[in-house]
Amino acid sequence: MKNTIKVERAKQNMTQADLAEKAKVSRQTINAIELGKFTPSTILALKMARIFNTTVEQIFFLEDGDE
Amino acid sequence: MKNTIKVERAKQNMTQADLAEKAKVSRQTINAIELGKFTPSTILALKMARIFNTTVEQIFFLEDGDE
DNA sequence: TCTTTATGTAAAGTATACTTTACTTTTGAG
DNA sequence: CTCAAAAGTAAAGTATACTTTACATAAAGA
């Protein structure tokens, strides 16, 4: 799965730490998700979408390899 | 988190087993998610949205308790 | 250069998503 | 009522999301 978290953060001028705080997860969790190291829960995806004033589908994209 | 999976399945006249097969997870996984026993991954949420021709936000809803 | 801020990374531990097998209960058609 | 399909449940195991602590690196400004 791909994501546009970095871009959305840039739009809002927000650091990984800022986003982590707003979403109530650790900064490392945001970093890992942003780098595609793992897939967030749907709760976290929904929270990010809400924080960025957008939708889950505009942040996260299925790829061919996604089982 | 709440969800409307049962309703979406009904619209498409689809059993839990049907949905499980399309999403490539077990039937028990669908059952547990539908009953709110756990939160799916974002990949699974995106797949369900795609299967139901709708969006993640129309299937899954954050609640007050959601950390 | 020195310092600060943001990002990346790593390892160990905990919580939880998901699987498999198998059984029970509910529901609806006939 | 009966039978079959659908849904619910449970337990044990595996995979992975997420935390905490800690350190490394890069960029930018004083």
Task: Outline the fold blueprint.
The structure is a homodimer of 67-residue chains.
Chain A: E1 2-3, H1 5-11, H2 16-23, H3 27-34, H4 42-51, H5 56-59, E2 60-61
Antiparallel strand pairs in A: 1-2
Chain A binds a DNA duplex (30 and 30 nucleotides) through residues 15-17, 25-29, 31-35, 38-41, 44.
Structure report:
Chains A, B: Residues 5-59 form the HTH cro/C1-type domain. Two copies of one chain form a homodimer. Chain A is built from five helices and two strands, in the order E-H-H-H-H-H-E. With 67 residues, chain A is mainly alpha-helical. Chain A has one domain: 434 Repressor (Amino-terminal Domain), CATH 1.10.260. The first copy, chain A, has a two-stranded antiparallel ribbon with strand order 1-2. In chain A, helix 2 (16-23) crosses helix 3 (27-34). Chain A starts with a strand and ends in a 6-residue tail after the last strand. The mean pLDDT of chain A is 96. Chain A binds chain B through residues 1, 24, 39-47, 49-50, 55-57, 60-62, 66-67, and chain B through 1, 24, 39-47, 49-50, 55-57, 60, 62, 66-67. Chain A binds a DNA duplex (30 and 30 nucleotides) through helix 3.
- SS strand fraction of chain A: 5-15%
Query: What is the CATH superfamily of chain A?
Result: lambda repressor-like DNA-binding domains
N-end to C-end Cα span of chain A: 10 Å
3D shape of chain A: globular
Roughly what is the average pLDDT of chain A, rounded to an integer? 96
Low-confidence stretches of chain A: none
Overall number of structural domains of chain A: 1
**Helical stretch count of chain A?**
5
Query: How many extended strands of chain A?
Result: 2
**Rg estimate of chain A, integer Å:** 11 Å
